[in-house]
Every structure is written in structure tokens, then in C-alpha cells.
Amino acid sequence: MATYQTQSEHNSKFDDLFCKVLDFITPLVVNEEDHLNEVFGIPYMEDIPTDASDSEIRIRKDENLATNNILIKLFGAKLDQELQQLIEVSYKVDPYYSLYMYLRLGKPSHNQEGSVFLKRFYSSSLIIVKRQFDQFIKNQVAQIGETKPHKSKKCGILHCVHKYEHFVRDTERLFDRKLERRTEIEKGYITLLEAVFFAIDRISKEQQKVPPEVVMFENYHHLTDLMKSMNLSCLSELQKKASKSYETNLNEYVTVKLGNPIEKISAFFLGVKQSLSSAVRPEEVGFQINYSRSVLKSIIKQYPLKDVRRSIEHYLNKIEKHLCEEESLYETVGSTYCHSILSQVTEYQGLMKSCYPDSGVTFEFREEDIRRLFDVRISQMQKKG
Known about the structure:
Helix content: over 70%
Low-confidence stretches: 43-49
Number of helices: 14
Strand content: under 5%
Number of strands: 0
Largest sheet: none
Mean pLDDT: 85
Shape: elongated
């Protein structure tokens, strides 16, 4: 993050410098234009009465054009060339500067509406900067496409995700949300975020350090939080997509990839549910050889409390090993895993009541035991943090 801080400092210094250039040019031209209009008695176009005739408007336009021609002779093409040279050099130094130049040249404080000369002068430069900004976005998309996973043991939050966050936060700090030219900026947000989505999906499959679902839900969680905090309407659909991907992959990791501490019990009751879905009545399930009371009792005996606790601790260790510290999702993932196991236990207890009534068959562990184990572990993790 120190790199981004240094980059922001450089960007701010450039922004201050570019603003000083524009703050020097703008009053210089405006004062000269005011002087010419005062000498020749020429009003600005916006000062013309709304009920003026077409011929009056035409005359005023010709007079303003005459003032503009004088200013061109006074300042010549030199001013235009020097500003454009500054723009070109700035882009070569750092293409990121195109964002700042695009903002400043488009602001009404510099692009004076009443000055025909300034409007044309800055508009020509703005076209160049707009091209630079478009190229900057294309280059960023290409760089995102080349993103590689971290070399550390855990994949964690990808570099392109951090870079996108830096870009959005830095841009929003500069841009007024009511600025007309936000449309182009918002297009850039969308284009880059879609490229980041592709990079996350690709890298999750390419890396071999953690299950792909972990890469997915950690990075999509980070992006979802970013979009919520920025509250950008242009990203609302992509925010929904990121949130859905986060939830889907978290659920897949917890229920499928991580492991089940009561696996044989779950397999047994899966068969029970399949029997029920095949029109077998609940009271008849126990008469099937594979799902008899004796089979159920023998399976339950394989899961005493100490073994279930040991198994759960093993899977909690895997969660800790897989997750990165930066995103701090251990409590969320651990709680989701706990809820998944407790949901299974509750469901199986219900099936035992309906399919094996008065059998006296119960688990050798209680829901409270599982819940307490998770609470203790999460408390330990919080103390570590």
C-alpha cells in the first residue's frame, strides 16, 4: 500500500503543477478579452437579450469572432503548441496524469463559458487528453489481463484488485459527481472492473495454493465492500454480480470443498431423503436394509464428541491456512461453516424423529458442543488479531 501512497503523492504534485499552468493562462486570456470587449463595446454572447433578433445575434457573433481573431494574433499558435507539448510530455512521464488533465481541462473554472477563445483553446487540448485517457484505460485492461498470483503461500487480494481500488478512490476524490464528463470516467470504471472480474476468475483456476473458491470469495468480497463504500450507481449491476459470486463461492467452499466432520452420517441421511423422495413412507424407511436402525446406530457410534471436535478443529485449521490476513474473513467463514454443520444436525434430528420414532437413537454430540467449539476458536482468533 506504500507504493500507492507514493503514487498518490506524485499525482497530487502533478495536479497542483498543472492547475498552476491553467490558473496562469486563464486570467491572462480572460483579462485581455475583457479589455478588447470593453474597448470595442462588444458584449459576451450570454449578455445578449433573449428577445434579440436573428440579425442582432449574427452581428454579435461576428463581433465576438473578431475579438477571437485578435486574441489569436496576440497569443498566436505558440500558446496552443506549448500546452499540447506539456500534455504530451506529461502523458509520457505517467499515463495516469491523463486523468488529472482530463478533469482540469473540463472544469468550468478553466474552460470559461463566456470566452470564445478559451473555449476553443481548451477544447482542442481536451480532445488530445481524451484520446490519452482512452489509451490509458486500454493499457490498464491489458495490464490487468497479465496479472499473476502472489508468490506468497496464500493468494490473497490480487494486485489488480488493489490497483482498481486505488484508481476509483483517487478518481472520486478529484471528480465532482455532478460533472458532465463523468460519463467517460464511469465507462472507464466499468471497463476496468469487468477486466478485473476476468482476472480473478482466471487466476483462481491457475494458482495451486488454495482452493479456487477462496481466491474468488476473498477478492469479490473486497470489491463488493469497495463498491458499497463508494456508492456509485454506474457499478450497481457489477456490484450485484460481485456480491453473488462472493456468496456462491463461500457457500461452495464451506459445504463442498472444505470437508464434512460427520461425512458418513450425512451420506446415510442423504439416502434416507432419496428414499422419501421415491414415495417411501417415513415409518417404512427403517425396514430397508441400508437404512435400518442398526445401521444408523453403528454409524452414529463412529462419531463420538471427541472425534467430531478433532475433525472440526482440523477443518478450522484449514480455513486459517487458506485465508489471507488482510481481508479478515476468518470469523465470517468459520461462522458460515458452523451454521452449515448445525443445519445438517438439525435436519438429521428431524429425520430421526419422523423415520425412527421411539428408537432412542441420538447423536453422541450436541449442537451446543459444536457451537461452543466454534465460539472458543473464533475468540482465540480475535485475540490474535
